[in-house]
Amino acid sequence: MALAPKFAGQAFSSSKISPKAVHTLELYLDYVCPFSAKLFNTLYSSILPSLPDRYPNLRLIFRQQIQPWHPSSTLCHEAGAAVLRLDPENFWPFSAELFKAQTEFFDENVVRETRNETYGRLAKVAGKVGVNESDILKLLQVSDKPAEDGSLNVGNGVTDDVKFLVKASTNRLTSVHGAVEGSISSSFTAEQWEEWLGQNVK
């Protein structure tokens, strides 16, 4: 699946990549899913550091997969969309920080705070990787007043981006060149990732 330029921060690839010969591995990940965290953390810490040199013709795309049965999932992905808007180069580092803090955004840990309070904590996560917290918060906060034209329920500064991300996601874990890739598991170790990449990225 193609990647809209405004979401380019979701891609991780070598600067040596040739646009005419690219393997694309799409990872459908949710910030509050433990299995997504396991998959992301293994890739981010063990595979991504050497990926540009070892697999220069591979591009990874982090597809934001909102799981609506966890209300905070939407809020976390809105924060990701805000980072993409303001500082796309820090999208992957932000995602790593958010996965580290994942349990802080589980249902039980957000139920007693307002939506804007949760956004405040998410902005602090973005701040840890150098993204301006107040700029993130400006995009995320929802007003308690009607819009100038009197309309209600207008969302926040990334609502339209999140709508697009939801339409682009298809409830799958991984895909290669747009086709579902069922052989990849969230339980893959670094060694299993190396084996899979060695067999499938040539």
Rounded radius of gyration (Å): 17 Å
Count of alpha and pi helical runs: 9
> How many strand segments?
5
What oligomeric state is this? single chain
Average pLDDT score: 86
Distance between the termini: 20 Å
SSE run: EEHHEHHHHHHEEH
- The strand line-up of the biggest sheet is 1-3-2-4-5
Topology:
Blueprint: E1 11-13, E2 23-29, H1 34-47, H2 51-54, E3 58-64, H3 71-86, H4 91-100, H5 107-110, H6 115-127, H7 133-140, H8 159-168, E4 174-176, E5 179-180, H9 190-200
Parallel strand pairs: 2-3
Antiparallel strand pairs: 1-3, 2-4, 4-5
Helix pairs in contact: 1-4, 3-4, 3-6, 3-7, 6-7
How would you characterize this protein structure?
With 202 residues, this protein is of the alpha+beta class. Helix content is 45%, strand content 11%. The longest helix has 16 residues, at 71-86. Strands 1-3-2-4-5 form a 5-stranded mixed β-sheet, with helices on both faces. The mean pLDDT is 86. The protein has helices at 34-47, 51-54, 71-86, 91-100, 107-110, 115-127, 133-140, 159-168, 190-200; strands at 11-13, 23-29, 58-64, 174-176, 179-180. The two termini are 20 Å apart. The protein is elongated, with a radius of gyration of 17 Å.
